[in-house]
Design goal:
The chain is mainly β. About 15% of the residues lie in helices and about 40% in strands. A four-stranded antiparallel β-sheet has the order 1-2-3-4, with helices on one face. Strands 5-12-10-7 form a four-stranded antiparallel β-sheet, with no helix packed on it. β1 and β2 form a beta hairpin.
Length: about 150
């Protein structure tokens, strides 16, 4: 029988990896089986669960209720490419968490096919979260930032 502490550590690492993917990808649910570890995560008010056979009795399977999610509008990538938060490494980012943006303001650049495309906000309000990091590959329709309406 595997060491329950190692199995739990493996499950925790897998859950962390899946939660990161869930936040960055346009999916609402993921399930992975690795070795004796089976993990399923879901977002939008669903529960996050990790089922680890043999590690814990079934009545003690780790279940973490997801925090209630208040859906805020997002500004999404219009195309696939490399996202940049500023026009050059020496300049300040177009927006920061807490910045006020108006619809039509430039919030970043996406490089696609050696062309830099200005990405403009489709929402007005205060930036609450920035999902895409500088230099990160983003896919079309992937959320770039979350905006709390003014």
């Amino acid at each position: 029988m595997p060491d329950p502490r190692k199995v739990r550590a493996d499950a925790n690492a897998l859950v962390a990896e899946l939660l990161e993917r869930l936040a960055n990808d346009e999916v609402s649910e993921l399930e992975v089986k690795r070795g004796g570890v089976r993990v399923r995560v879901a977002k939008n008010g669903a529960r996050v669960t990790a089922s680890v056979p043999g590690a814990l009795p079934s009545h003690e399977a780790p279940t973490v209720p997801a925090a209630p999610v208040k859906e805020l509008p997002t500004v999404n990538a219009p195309l696939t490419g490399i996202f940049y938060r500023s026009s050059s490494p020496q300049t300040e980012a177009f927006v920061q968490v807490g910045s006020e943006v108006e619809s039509g303001d430039v919030i970043g650049l996406i490089e696609a096919m050696k062309l830099f495309n200005e990405i403009r906000s489709t929402q007005s309000g205060r930036v609450r979260r920035i999902f895409a990091e500088n230099g990160q590959l983003v896919r079309a329709h992937q959320p770039l930032l979350e905006v709390e309406p003014a």
